[in-house]
Amino acid sequence: MGIFYEESGRVFTLQTRHSTYQMKADGQGVLLHTYYGEKTDNTDLSCLIARGDRGFSGNPYSMGGTDRTYSLDTFPQEYSCFGTGDYRISALKVENADGSRAVSLRYAGHAISKGKYALPGLPAAYGTEEEAETLSVDLKDEESGVAVRLYYGVFEDLDVITRAAEITNGGEEGVTLLKAASLCLDWQTGEYDWITFHGRHAMERNFQRTGIVHGLQSIGSVRGASSHHYNPFVMVCGKNTGEEHGDCYGFSFVYSGEFLMEAEKDQMDQTRLICGIHPDDFAWKLEPGETFTVPEVLMAYSGEGQGGVSRIFHRLIRDHICRGQWKHSRRPVLINNWEGTYFDFTGDKLVDIAKDAAKLGIELFVMDDGWFGKRDSDNSGLGDWYPNEKKLGCTLKELGERITALGLRFGIWFEPECISIDSDLYRAHPEWAVAVPGRNPVLSRNQLILDFSRKDVQDYLIERISNVLGSAPITYVKWDFNRSICDKYSHALPADRQGEMAHRFVLGLYRVLETLTESFPEVLFEGCSGGGGRFDAGMLYYTPQIWCSDDTDAIERLQIQYGTSFGYPVSAMGAHVSAVPNHQTGRVTPLATRGCVAMAGTFGYELDLNKLTEEEKEEISRQISTFKELYDCIQYGDYYRLASPLSGSCTVWETAAPDASEALVSAVYHHVQANPVPVYVKLRGLSEDASYRVCLVGKTGETILSGAALMHGGLAIPPAKGDYCSWQIHLTRI
Ligand code: GLA
Prior knowledge:
The protein is of the alpha+beta class and 734 residues long. The strands form seven sheets. A nine-stranded antiparallel β-sheet has the order 6-7-8-9-19-15-14-11-12. It has an eight-stranded parallel β-barrel with strand order 20-21-22-25-26-27-28-29, surrounded by four helices. Strands 5, 10, 13, 16, 17 and 18 form a six-stranded antiparallel β-sheet that branches. A hairpin with a 6-residue loop joins strand 34 and strand 35.
């Protein structure tokens, strides 16, 4: 059992295997946050809250003005409110019917139950009654009637606590939510860094570690999607925390839309983190009796540094976010024709590639953009989800049958949330495109956004996509989204509800995905947004893998996949071997290295196999056999970042079977040196007292070394033999 309530002090202590989280409803009814970190007992830690007269930090009226040592401006709290004496960043901001913006929450009750709460219409971690427990704490603003139910899901074994909330207007007049965050977390003591992941199209999730200093620091997105530019996953860690040691916290927002993660160090050197829907373009009207559900944040603490937190998130996402029959079944090795042909293909051309693919051991053929409507470039056709039989030379069903006859699965690409102006759908329904009346909308990739906040649009897409999926032997869908949203306006919403559009769009997307994944359980959905522009735990609830980046250069991918690995497992990261010179960078890397890097994800190819030499095809066939042989170790192994791509000459990572029976070490020289400095790494996740057979994949010969020697002494990575050389080193316990 992980949730404890101590009645006399009104203290809630959430215990996981290695962490403790605590809050307390104090004498004023304020829900104080008293602790989150390394495991301790259930002692009421509110004794640590320092009190003192903090000038210009006011005192609640209910204290009668006599106790100047009590101020909401300095006390750590569970869900901070705007406008009533806490001047720090707030979780909740409300506009009341009289135009005032004050809200102040007090404890009103709680409930503890087995199992994990679910959120209507939103993705959330799930768990059985044996795996998780739920605490809900009710808070209320007496004046307005606004009631907040905070949810906590405790996954004791996993060291994970989740948070979400429901906000109900229990008053008699309408209120508008201006900010409704999912997480507010205060650290009373300590100096912290935070690690964020920034990027751009074709270079997502770059690691950045900076101190949390006095003032505000934030990352977020106002682009309608979580974005390439900042990922909704952050870590907060102590100054001395490293990859494998020290206090580290991770926070992952289970949401695919606009978000804000803010950190503030306050006047008393305390740190506050707030995370939730971005408030800039958010205003949600709540009529009396209505409830708004705030999306979920996943939290984890580890004393084993960033690596410890990453491994918790890998398990959490694999086992409690991803769903459906593909969650744990072997994902097929795929070939995608995008970089192979772009828009220039026919059905016969695709079948020719598929023939080679089948011979090499590839299991799934994916037909990318260009199979529908009038779509021979990215200037037209989006929205017309009818196969272009003239281009394919046959029906979709026939093409699917030709591919499946070769022993391959068949998959296709969609971009359901977008529309081309040059499309039959736009001509029939211009009002379905997102645009502000009287203004010309911004074009991006020459396309507009479809208003997914509208139910009629959602229903149309559900029907159209279902029709296509039902018409041919399709077992895979790549779900793309190739622009950011702006000019937000929905013809289906009144003027005073336009601030709901961005969130309603995401809810609409989730409804469409929920319906389709339920109706087509055998279909593997892969998310995509110009690569990794919507790589978040929300999407992973529907699509257990996401195309990591449109940058397929193996060396650039080292950095992208390194950053991605902090919050997401290998099984979530779409990674393909592509042609050289690489189409994005012009770089030439060995085929072996491209294979090695792509194997750190859901492995596949994205090139025209017909253009390869026989030797290259043989090498691909060997790569595929290696991947299939090591599949479990790669996809379900514990992941260790041993040497970073951001420094040194060689990037090294390891996946070790959870029972320590085998491990795969992958090393890629991103910088070849003359008279090179040797590269050593200390392995992790092995049994100290066991012996391991150490082999270079694809080479003969072996060395026997003990787990202790490999973990404490280390392993020497063979030197580079040329530019961008790589090694895969397989260890098996004897
Ligand atoms: C996006 C995707 C690519 C490809 C193209 C097709 O950029 O990320 O993989 O599917 O769209 O237009």
